[in-house]
Amino acid sequence: MGSDTSSGASPEGIDLEPVTGWLVERIDGLTPPLEFTLIAGGHSNLTYRFVDGRGEAFVLRRPPLGHVLESAHDMGREHRIVSALRDSEVPVAPTFGYCEDPAVNGAPFYIMGYVDGAVLHDATAANSMPESDRYDLGLDVIRVLAALHNLDPDAVGLGELGRKEAYLERQLKRWNKQWEASKTHEIPEMEEVSRRLAERMPAQVGAGIVHGDYRLGNMIVGGGRILAVLDWELCTLGDPLADVGYLLNSWVEPGESDTAAVPTAAGGFPSRAELCERYEAATGRSLDGIAYYRAFSHWRLAAIGQGVYKRYLVGAMGANRSMDLDSYKQSVHLRAEAALALLGG
Questions:
Q1: What pLDDT digit, counting tens, does each position of 183-212 carry?
Q2: What is the Cβ-side half-sphere exposure of residue 17, based on CA atoms within 13 angstroms?
Q3: Which of 118, 139, 193, 296 has a 20 to 30 A CA-CA distance from 13?
Q4: Same-domain check for residues 92 and 160
Q5: What global pTM score does this model have?
């Protein structure tokens, strides 16, 4: 192979020669040189598409560059989850291996097949899809979520992924701690929502695999269906209804305020009520108390958002201050108010 290994393109985060050598040993027929392109970056895990000499495409996932908490960017865990779901009704990309030796690329990484399709990050992307496909896709979104929640974690080898019980209790403790650590000003609604969430916490009925970030922006789609569910880094075991509440909050309906950027604002998708009806029928789980989970989701995202706001405010994110801090600060307030309204504000 020799000099061929170094003649491809290599963006930051890819040590081309050792990575190529590692890949050639594990993917049958892989033909150097390999050309890498960063397709998703930022402060989350980095995603690169690479193409070999035959034109075959694959994906490499690795943690962000620089110092990061290992637990937040556990490549082995993410690879294990995606691999475990390969033969289930939950569509995921095929996996080709996991490298835990930092000598190869400076950090662990894993390899998936490249799935060709669209990612609906906003309403503009959704508008490019035929309206009939939007409706069918919406039904597939809830079908796949129900399929995920119907899986027995032990049966697919994910029974040790996390604690199954007391999911909401653990989440409230975690995000209250985050809120206190990152609070820069008073938002009385946050404390009131926290109090009500603790006071009204429903009993957890069973436990399932919780994706943690299940929305259209984390799916590759095409032909009115999901081709692959992405971004499993927040996946754990716990109360599946947390995923439903999160999805419903992202599933805005045309005409709702401040939602123009959200994919479903394009119209043509099933309503929240239709999603709930389909989910209940597929899982046997009642969504009578789903307003609680929607409130919890808004409150959790407000706590996360406040943490990001503070890091930008104190300059911990470096020189990039292009974001509108006032708008970001306001979004935390709006999340807290939305949560309170769902709890009878």
A1: 999 999 999 999 999 999 999 989 999 999
A2: 5
A3: 118
A4: no
A5: 0.90
